[in-house]
């Protein structure tokens, strides 16, 4: 083979190999149509535990565990509940994304937990890094996609609500300092799987979706307000807009299962990088 032809052949092979490698890397990192599972079905090694009264990383009572290819929240190794509110954080923060979580409430509520925690859990997002939380901080400074189930009393109880530990939002064009705002969802009973979706576009738009129905919209999440105690004052900068943060699954006295936690990063689609 002539030298010039051989060089061109080598360059062609290198380019072809590089393209194939990049396509393979995108497939591995992005998954089908850009969706990635944050939960691998085997363990929570990619997650960080923070439970009230405990140091970050201590999974007290094996609260968060993987069984039957699900993340399960359980309290069978607890004594008194003692307000040991917990959160399981994915290891990296996100800003522009579409999140899908499938959950079901199950089992017996921890009766010495606060009464409002009955059939109650949540998905925290735009959260502070759990490693910035002191041992005695009770809740992360974050926005909560609140998950509730019906109490069996025939009264409506919406899920996919918004709660705001240490934060405020803009709702219907105005700064809203209420701790929780109810969605327009239907009532879903315990022991049934519910699909919760969250579309977050930085600080500009947040949408809650339950079983395919859009149930709440708001914008401009920002630090402010009460509820969170024993925080590091350097972290709670009231008025600071939250355009990114960590995602966490909550434990607060009610057993719950999570069988799917998937995300699609919208950063590149929206031209933010």
UniProtKB/TrEMBL annotation:
Residues of the signal peptide? 1-20
Key words of the record: Signal
Instruction: Specify whether Signal is a keyword of the entry.
Output: yes
Known Gene3D superfamilies for this protein?
A: Exo-inulinase, domain 1
**InterPro entries, per database record:** AL/BT2_dom
Q: Which GO terms describe its molecular function?
A: hydrolase activity
Q: In the UniProt record, does the keyword Calcium occur? A: no
Pfam families according to UniProt: 3keto-disac_hyd (PF06439)
- Return the protein name: DUF1080 domain-containing protein
Provenance organism: Niastella caeni
